[in-house]
Specification:
The protein has 180 residues and is an alpha+beta fold. Helix content is 32%, strand content 22%. The protein has four helices and five strands, in the order αβββαββαα. It has a three-stranded antiparallel beta sheet, with no helix packed on it. Strand 2 (46-50) and strand 3 (57-59) form a beta hairpin. It is globular, with a radius of gyration of 20 Å. The termini are far apart.
Length: 180
Amino acid sequence: MSTTTVSTYLRPIDRDGLLKFAEAGRENPERKGTNKVKTVMQGQFRSWSFVGIHNPVVVDEPLHLFGENTAPAPGEIVLSALGGCLGVGITAVATLRQVKLSRLEIHLEADIGNTAAWGAGGAEREPHQMGFQAIRVKVAIEGEASREELNDIVQRANHFSPVANSMRNPIPFEIGLLDA
């Protein structure tokens, strides 16, 4: 009786398209895109964020934070954006290196502080004392490469992740009222 091992792989991306996109970045490294989102409050702490033609991203707070617990909390959505961005980067680097992946899971957790109660009478805090205080990411990855190569793919994707770098690095931030 013989045994056959069948490997299944994650659906790949277009490697030629990736190489053209990378070449365009090398030719114009200062090029930037713009992400746009419109968030509309629905009542209590539930909101809908509209992104292009997609279904809205629904955000809520858990019951203990006065929400209805109908959707992920804002911090959970931020972590999901980080996980998605890291997943894109890991897939891109693996594709560049022609490493077929059979498993990619990104497990994220973060310690978050809000003792200021969103500025509504809680503790007096400075911006650096609120929000995520620590983020931990663990990646479960399998594919046609050694564990060392897979780790290198993960580390390179982390280094170049736009969302991870938005969290790590101070960025200019403006807020104001929309013109009437």
